[in-house]
Automatic annotation (TrEMBL):
Keywords: 4Fe-4S, Electron transport, Iron, Iron-sulfur, Metal-binding, Transport. Gene3D superfamilies: 3.30.70.20, FAD/NAD(P)-binding domain (3.50.50.60), Jelly Rolls (2.60.120.10). This is NAD(P)-binding domain-containing protein. Transmembrane segments: none annotated. Pfam families: cNMP_binding, Fer4_11, Pyr_redox_3. Residues 635-667, 672-703, 704-732, 771-804 form the 4Fe-4S ferredoxin-type domain. Residues 354-455, 478-597 form the Cyclic nucleotide-binding domain. InterPro entries: 4Fe4S_Fe-S-bd (IPR017896), 4Fe4S_Fe_S_CS (IPR017900), cNMP-bd_dom (IPR000595), cNMP-bd_dom_sf (IPR018490), FAD/NAD-bd_sf (IPR036188), RmlC-like_jellyroll (IPR014710), RnfB_subfamily (IPR050294). The keyword Electron transport applies. The keyword Transport applies. CDD domains: CAP_ED, DMSOR_beta_like. One of its GO terms (molecular function) is metal ion binding.
Amino acid sequence: MPKVFRVAIIGSGPAGLSAAGRAAALGMNHVLIEKTDHLSDTIYKYQKGKHVMATPSNLVLRSDLDFEAGKRERVLSTWDDQAASQGINVMLNAEVAAIEGETGDFTIKLADGRELTAQAVVLAIGTQGNPNRLRVPGADLPHIQYQLDDPGEYFDEHITVVGSGDAGIENALGLAADEAQRNTVTILNRRADFARAKAANVKQLEEAEQDGRLIVRRETSPSEVKPGELVLETRDGEVAIPCDRIIARTGSQPPRTFVEACGIEFTSGERSAFPKLSPSFETTQSGIHVIGALAGYPLIKHCMNQGYDVIEFLNGNANLKPADEPILAEKFAPLPGNRSVDEWLELFGQNIEIFNDLSPLQLRELMLDSTVHAYTSGELIFARNAPGSSMFAIAQGSVAVEVNPDDPSQTVPISQGSIFGEVGLISGRKRGATIRAAEPIVAIELSRTAALKLLATSPGANRVVNRISIERQLLQMFGSGLTSNDVAELVESAELVEVRAGEAAVTEGADDKDVFIIRSGSMIVEKAIGGKQVFLNYLPAGSYFGEMAVIDGSPRIASVKAAIKSELIRLPGDAFIALIERNPTLRETALAEMANRREINAFVESRKSSFSGAVDLYSETAQFLVDNGIGEATDVLLIDEKLCIGCDNCENACADSHDGLSRLDREAGRSYAHLHVPTSCRHCEHPHCMADCPPNAIKRGPDGEVFIDETCIGCGNCERNCPYGVIRMDAKPPAKPSLLQWLLFGKGPGPGEAPSKWRKAIAENEAVQQPKLAIKCDMCSGIEGGPACVRACPTGAAIRVAPEKFLSVARIEGGE
């Protein structure tokens, strides 16, 4: 073995192995250093029989080693054979302890005391050796494991997989694949979307869920590990499930201490940040290059291309372009300015704030999943109430937001480097305003999938989006002519806080002085009266609380706790006081809100002194409403059973407005006293049904209604995700004749009925081939007069209640 190698490649995963293969093909003096006794430990540790994907499918593979989709065992066997036949110089069982020196003269020290010398070093060590550990009570128990070798080893167990990336999904699918093993498999995803995983894996998971082969728990995370049991934190509070084994696949972190000891800088101080890299993969330590997962590129085909490319660069091929160059060149061709791909990427990375922390490699990958636009001055980008869940970033120019639908001349600017459309991304609502190009602009449109992946993998981008959304929420809530400069201090000091269902954000009697905005979820306000907690108020997303103690300096007069898992924006009280002192109009608004809340308190106090039973009923009724989905609703149907005569006009009217298929089940649901919550859509603030809708067929209307459009493919994900059972899959009946034709000539079915022949065919199972689609209440969107169920009720028993009216219902029920 020669004393000095032209290049030492550390790590024999797909990136390192491909680099070594290219070095061997060029006759370059090289060594491939691997700390284990086998090649490609990353793939070797995949579960037995795993199908290895070769994505992206449109990306050309550059490598002297073959790779195509197939079983783990076949991929490894191919690489072992080719590594031997191509003369790759492999050193196994060699763990690197340190890298010292400079370009042309690096000393690589091994853990066993041996030393190697190389002119250049390629780090392809990945991140798999540094898995993220669970950080909950009980995380040191022995039934937690961070690797799954063979799913076939486990039988008759309750197994929970923690992690929603590709590894977690593949482990869950493998454990649930063989029914004979009789495992009960659950996978947890702390978010609603599987943003980190490949689309093919997500599809397989949804199919397995639909078939009942495993359980998917969204917006759920582990809270405590116990022997034989796992306590989960869900939107609605804690729940315990049986658990014999936990497979934790929550990602991994770069071996930062080792990498920084080599003289390499990272893009930020975040735990998940990646090393700073040049387009040729060179780090801030000249002569050391980083490729593969450590560079932020976990896909095998990307890694192998990087391995090929880095050796070409070291061999003097300075003109080599990445394999995705033709794809990006075609994508950027319509943009003005006649720039090259590298020039555009440099401009995007410098000008767009959410891209500032991305390496050129990460930015290239993001661009493959995004769309670039060039708009002329005044050109419409999107209109108010248009559907859309993508997010835009402005690379050049600025846009004008039309804030008044009746006066397009009233606009607010959004300048170069910022973003817009993030509200549709976060909430799924239709576009809240019309936006036009204020001047010629270049903008990047990130699909919902690409944007969510960016936020999940880039701490810097997530931080910027949070800051911008907080600023815009403050301006929207407080209004009063405020500008970005007015709220800059509040935005800078704001903090995002997650509150579990039932957890208090503010405690009665406490002397803290913060103000809170409800970003998502909802809160309930309670006060201790007569030795019990009495319900005072319900606060939906977009409300704020805590300002009373800040303004008058008094202790907290009530407790505020989460009705469901919620996210709050915490604002320091002193910064809030400074803001309202500078803005008299805002101060008047805050004082008016305080007066309203004091009126509610006075109502409760007065009822307690004169008639405790009434306030108890009021509090219990309000709690019943929250417990039955009001906590996350924006509009819900309630029925007063003292007035309801059981005529079913509400159901018939609903059916007659929707092809003969009612979206309402009057008799189903729960009741308290004489208040009934039937089975009908709540139009949740953050709809469960929107999660994992492949065609994005579920949208929000301008009035908050959640509806399913004609792009529904009948996958059933929404039906499974809805916790209230208000969505069902049904075949669409043929069109009915008009009501006049039925009245005059007896044509077709009567009001509220589907065609009789169609009903008979369904009953006799003759229409089984007809595809079923998801149906649910859409609040009679587009129908004049509003919800048909309410209009058809002859006694006024049926009412639809918006969040601001929930308390009024409870007060009426309480005897006011």
